[in-house]
Design goal:
Layout lengths: L8 E5 L4 H12 L3 E6 L2 H11 L2 E4 L5 H11 L5 E4 L15 H28 L3 E6 L12 H20 L5 E8 L7 H5 L4 H6 L10 H12 L9 E4 L4 E3 L2 E2 L4
The structure holds 2-hydroxyethylsulfonic acid (8X3).
2-hydroxyethylsulfonic acid (8X3) binds next to loops.
Family: Belongs to the short-chain dehydrogenases/reductases (SDR) family.
Pfam family, one: adh_short
Organism: Nocardioides baekrokdamisoli
């Protein structure tokens, strides 16, 4: 693959929709050569063609797939956006579905670990690497029915905190963004197994939830700070959401 060091390269996982797709677009606008990594080849191919990026079909939970992504990245990488993740279900602990919990741990925690581990040498080799992992306010405060997702996103935060300590003397920033309510086409639909009515209810009455572009804008800001500026954690919520449980739904 082209390794033109005049143009910075960014990998975005989960780039097929939502925050990942918006971030890929935004980083391309910012001048990055963007590598779009996701499972759905047709979607990332189409977006890559549109923004002049590169699509690499990737399942972050699959070791061989992640190894192929790292191989395609090559020896240098400037930015990694660990965005692939998601919530499955909203069951209380008493009715928890073990498979859903496993899937959440697999994609949110092991996925972040596997991709980060695979491209960390390339990030360090760039001399000024930057990692932004998309966590969630669900990783800061638990809520009823959220335990499986909460546990996974609390886990993501732990991984980022430990990694920051481990590479403190290396030229790589370890950053995290924790969004609250973001209205994307798929997050809630995935959580509720394709039930559009339940998905829509999550945003009911909220005049202005965040949109994917708001998060992409923040990620762009984080990675484009000077290399000595580490935004450890950026918590971002719509004004209507003072806390997970305190949402203005009057509209
Ligand atoms: C998404 C935020 O509130 O649905 O990561 O858990 S929430």
């Amino acid at each position: 693959m082209n390794d033109d060091r005049n143009q910075k390269t960014a990998v975005v996982t989960g780039a097929s929709s939502g925050i990942g797709a918006a971030t890929a677009r935004r980083l391309a606008d910012d001048g990055y050569r963007v590598i779009l990594a996701a499972r759905r080849t047709d979607r990332i191919e189409a977006l890559a063609a549109e923004i002049g990026g590169i699509s690499i079909t990737t399942d972050v939970t699959d070791a061989a797939s992640v190894a192929a992504l790292a191989e395609a990245v090559g020896p240098h990488l400037d930015v990694l956006v660990n965005n692939a993740g998601g919530a499955y279900g909203l069951s209380p602990v008493a009715a928890a579905d073990t498979d859903e919990w496993r899937r959440m741990y697999d994609v949110n925690v092991l996925g972040v670990m596997q991709v980060t581990r695979a491209v960390l040498p390339a990030l360090i080799a760039s001399g000024a690497g930057a990692i932004v992992t998309v966590g969630s306010t669900a990783g800061l405060v638990a809520y009823e029915g959220g335990a499986g997702y909460n546990a996974a996103k609390f886990g993501v935060r732990a991984v980022m905190e430990a990694l920051r300590l481990e590479v403190f003397d290396q030229p790589v920033r370890v950053m995290e963004i924790d969004p609250g309510m973001v209205h994307t086409e798929e997050f809630s639909l995935t959580r509720f197994g394709g039930d559009q009515a339940r998905a829509d209810a999550a945003y009911a009455g909220v005049a202005e939830p965040l949109v994917a572009e708001d998060i992409a804008d923040a990620i762009s800001w984080m990675v484009t700070r000077p290399a000595h500026v580490n935004i450890d954690r950026l918590v971002i919520k719509p004004r209507a959401q003072a806390a997970a449980h305190k949402v203005d739904r009057r509209s």
